[in-house]
Amino acid sequence: MDPLSAPGSADVAAWRSRWRAAGESLFPTLMNDPPSYAGAVETIGALATELGRRDADLPALVAVMAAPDAFLAECGLRPGAVPAGLLVGVACGMRERDLIAEEVRREHHAAIEGARATGSAWAVLAGPEAIEDVTGGPGGVACCTHLHVASGVEIRATVDAWSPEPYRVDVIEAGVVPPRGASFTRREPWIAEFHRYRAEIGDGA
């Protein structure tokens, strides 16, 4: 298959499902073959490092997934007993997680800077600004995370529709393990607890 020079969103979605499945299928098959397992881990690490060095974005990951043997050759590596597509797939999954983490860091930084610019005591790192707008969502789980800018304390409110106590609030503070928190069976006390924590930590507005 020729590399996809300019993949669209459908291409990325299709290839993403492949590289996410690669790790699920690769490692269980190698558990009883320690030498092959060690070799695969070393090769995958080298491939992931090279993708990071290239600052590979999602279209770039699609391109190497479309021509895994060529990518291994460019890196001076051989697949050995493991198919090149699986090795490259796992490496692409690792790189995608790095890209997601980088995007989250950028979004958090923008939210914090936005809060500082407006004089707000709180930055919304994830989810809606109002806890009242958090629902279980189509996947059954949803959350919002608010950061108290001055102290760095986070309040995270989650809804897990599959849990017997679906509503939870956690206060995440540096050096405090496990975080403070509580679970609820009903929305009303959950919302009240969230607002209580905000008032306790800082400006509850």
Key phrases:
five-stranded antiparallel β-sheet, 53% helix, alpha+beta, 5 strands, disordered N terminus, 6 helices, 205 residues, Alkylmercury lyase-like protein
Quick rundown:
The protein is α+β, with helices and mostly antiparallel strands.
Provide an overview of this structure.
By secondary structure, the protein is α+β, with helices and mostly antiparallel strands. The protein is 53% helix and 15% strand. The chain has six helices and five strands. A five-stranded antiparallel sheet has the order 1-2-3-4-5. A hairpin with a 6-residue loop joins strand 3 and strand 4. The longest helix is centred in the middle third of the chain and has 35 residues. The chain is elongated and about 60 Å long. The termini are far apart. The relative contact order is 0.09. The N terminus is likely disordered.
